[in-house]
Amino acid sequence: MPSPLVYFQIATPDTDAARAFYSALFDWKWGEPGGRTVTIDAQGPADFDPKGSLRQMPEGTTPFVTPWFRVDDLWATLEKAQSLGAEVILPIRQSATGTHSCLVRGPDGQTVGIVQA
Questions:
Q1: What pTM was computed for the model?
Q2: Tens digits of per-residue pLDDT, 62-76?
Q3: Local structure of 24: helix, strand or coil
Q4: 47 to each of 4, 39, 53, 83, 106, how far by Cα in Å?
Q5: Is 61:36 a contact under the CB 8 Å cutoff?
Q6: Contact 19, 56 (CB under 8 A)
Q7: Residue 87 pairs with which residues in a beta bridge?
Q8: Which CATH number does the domain housing residue 80 bear?
Q9: Are residues 89 and 59 in the same domain?
Q10: Category of 30 on φ-ψ map: left (φ > 0), alpha (ψ -120 to 50) or beta
C-alpha cells in the first residue's frame, strides 16, 4: 500500500513572521496556540487534506519542514529505512492517543516522520 503524506510540521524561530507569510500566501486557517505549537488547517480537498503545525524553535535555529507519512507497519518500515541507509533520529514512540511514530534522516540528509495510526 502507498504511504500517503498525512501531516507536516513547519519549525521556525519566528512563528509570527511564518504565520503571516503562510496566511497571506495560502489563506490557511490556524488553531489556537498551545504551548510552542499552533495547528494548521491547509483546507485541502476531502480526498487529500493533511493537517500541520507551526512550531516555535529557539532563536538562531535553522527553520525546517518535516513531512509525516502513514504506513501500515511502522516496525517493518523503520527496518527497511535503516537497510536503505536511514539514521533513526527519534525511535518509535507511542503518543497519548495510541499512535506510534518515529523520525528518520535519509541518506540525503532530509528528516521525515513515519506514523502508524
A1: 0.83
A2: 999 999 999 999 999
A3: helix
A4: 11, 20, 20, 32, 28
A5: no
A6: no
A7: 105
A8: 3.10.180.10
A9: no
A10: beta
